[in-house]
Amino acid sequence: MNFDEFRKLFQNQGFAEREIKIGAVLRYIATDVVPEPKLKMRLIVGFSNDKLLVATIFINTEINPNKFPSQELRDLHLVVTQNQYKFLDYDSFLDCSQFKEVPYEYLANLLTDNPACVIGEIQHSDWEKIRETIKNAPTLTSKEKKKFGFI
User: How far apart are CA 36 and CA 2, in angstroms?
Assistant: First the structure.
């Protein structure tokens, strides 16, 4: 590795550490989706106490009626609009019904290799509603909520 490559890697690692934070929105190929990997947007909502895991939620363009058949489950999705967030291609939904846990190291490597995965940040004014929805979600266990600082 020459000096310029080392300097770029060092700069990108610092970038990753600064950008892996609550409220950051990432877009990358998610390998933990069914039936196959695809480009997804995720919002970082928390960290485990040891900082080894990052809790994320999906940002989806629609609510899947097969997966969320009841109004109670659909209510766990918060609307975000293109007017609010220019990184959105469509008005979308924050799925506060479940966490997708991602190893911190995986995200750090991802952002080191591709800083463009960071596409935006959720406004502070929306954070409290997101937090309350997650805190009150019956689909998340107390253990999950505690693990990521929601209890």
Answer: 37
Peptide bond into 35 cis (omega under 30): yes
- The domain in which residue 76 lies consists of 3-147
**Token pair recorded at residue 145:** 């909520």
State the CATH number of the domain containing residue 24: 2.30.30.110
Pairwise CA distance, residues 41 & 142, whole Å: 25
pTM (two decimals): 0.88
Residues in the chain: 151
132: left (phi over 0), alpha (psi -120 to 50) or beta: alpha
Please give the tally of structural domains in the chain.
Answer: 1
Mean pLDDT per block of 10 residues along the chain (151 residues) reads 51 71 95 87 96 96 94 97 95 97 92 90 94 97 96 91
The residue written with tokens 């991802």 in the block is 110
Instruction: Return the exposure string of 80-105: e unless at least 16 CB atoms fall within 10 Å of the residue's CB, then b.
Output: beeeebeebeeebbbbbbbbbbbebe
Q: How far is 83 from 8, CA to CA, in rounded Å?
A: 35
Residue 122, CB half-sphere, CA atoms under 13 Å: how many? 30
